[in-house]
Amino acid sequence: xxxxxxxxxxxxxxxxxxxxxxxxxxxxxxxxxxxxxxxxxxxxxxxxxxxxxxxxxxxxxxxxxxxxxxxxxxxxxxxxxxxxxxxxxxxxxxxxxxxxxxxxxxxxxxxxxxxxxxxxxxxxxxxxxxxxxxxxxxxxxxxxxxxxxxxxx
Length: 153
Known about the structure:
Blueprint: H1 15-21, E1 26-29, E2 36-39, E3 44-48, H2 53-68, H3 84-101, H4 104-113, H5 117-124, H6 128-145
Parallel strand pairs: 1-3
Antiparallel strand pairs: 2-3
Helix pairs in contact: 1-2, 2-3, 3-6, 5-6
């Protein structure tokens, strides 16, 4: 058992299984510049072929966040969909996914461990980017709890 496994919530949240429960199909194909993408018009998730388990788990959870948060587009890097609205959606999806994949007990243990982010992320079963997003989410949650102004996510 990893030091980051918490009693309160299983570390192995499976976004692929959650998508299946919601009846959202995943189509595996070769994607350019992205690991996965939510297509609201076709009501499906596209996922890159050949991802490592940690990449796939993090990417699918990010797309699940778009679905849960009712976002209607992804900010695909090769299109003109990069504007304030889509960037905000990408950010909120990343923070939602990070909160779902790493609970507060796991986060506290990770921070206390003093290990490098790369090792902590691997232990938690997420990408290093997702771990960094969880650290940002925690800071925002703390600021909100303290009644300090924080940007919406």
